[in-house]
Structure formats: C-alpha cells, structure tokens
C-alpha cells in the first residue's frame, strides 16, 4: 500500500488487517472513501471493504458488527462486508479501491 495516510489511521488499518487475517485468513481487505481518494482530513474514518464468503448467511449489519471487533477503538471504522460474488457485482460502487491485503 503506497498511500500517504494520517499516521493514526495508517496504524489502525494495519492493526485491523492483522487481527482480521488471524480470524479470516481468506479475506481480502480494501480501503475506500476519503483515505483511498487522498482527500482525507486528520480525523477521517477508515472505510474498509472486506471480501469473504465466510459470513454469507448473515445480514449486512451483522457482518459489519462481527468484524468491528477486529478494529482498534481509537479510530472510527466503517466496515462493509461482501461475498466474492457481491464484490464482482458491486465493486464499482466503492471505487477508488486500494487493496490492503
């Protein structure tokens, strides 16, 4: 990842990704929103799109709530979870996307 991000958000994103991959090693993590576009503010939240098929039986808010446990508490996260099929269909809605892992 070659983006210039605020240090707090960068560290929080790295921590989230590390924690998430320990529980969901098959997941792909993408950054979207202001941090991906480069027009962030110092207090911008971290918008992440997680692609995994392991939570496919849950409602969207349930998926996000489950993965919120992996996010550090000192930075706001907006977490969207899609299956691989949903990602192929809806990817353009979240662009630009930056692959984190």
Can you summarize this structure?
By secondary structure, this protein is of the alpha+beta class. It contains four helices and four strands, in the order H-E-H-E-H-E-H-E.
Protein model, in words:
The structure is a single chain. α3 (60-68) links the parallel β2 and β3. The longest helix has 17 residues, at 7-23. The chain has 101 residues and is of the alpha+beta class. The protein starts with 6 loop residues before the first helix and ends with a strand. 37% of the residues lie in helices and 19% in strands. The chain has a single domain (7-100), classed as 2-Layer Sandwich (Beta Polymerase, domain 2).
Features:
101 residues, alpha+beta, Beta Polymerase, domain 2, four-stranded mixed β-sheet, 4 helices, 19% strand
Helix run count: 4
Give the radius of gyration: 13 Å
> What's the order of the H and E elements?
HEHEHEHE
CATH topological fold name: Beta Polymerase, domain 2
Unreliable spans are none
Q: State the shape.
A: globular
Structural class comes to alpha+beta
Strands, count: 4
> What proportion strand?
15-25%
The overall number of domains is 1
CATH architecture annotation name: 2-Layer Sandwich
Helix proportion of residues, in percent? 25-40%
Please give the largest β-sheet.
4 strands, mixed
Q: Whole-Å distance between the termini? A: 9 Å
Overall pLDDT metric: 94
- Major sheet: order of its strands? 3-2-1-4
């Amino acid at each position: 990842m070659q983006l210039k991000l605020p240090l707090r958000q960068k560290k929080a994103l790295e921590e989230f990704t590390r924690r998430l991959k320990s529980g969901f090693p098959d997941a792909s993590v993408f950054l979207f929103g202001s941090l991906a576009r480069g027009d962030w503010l110092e207090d911008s939240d971290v918008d992440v799109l997680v692609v995994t098929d392991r939570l496919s039986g849950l409602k969207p808010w349930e998926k996000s709530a489950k993965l919120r446990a992996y996010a550090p508490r000192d930075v706001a996260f907006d977490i969207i979870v899609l299956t691989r099929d949903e990602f192929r269909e809806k990817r353009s809605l979240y662009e630009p996307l930056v692959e984190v892992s």
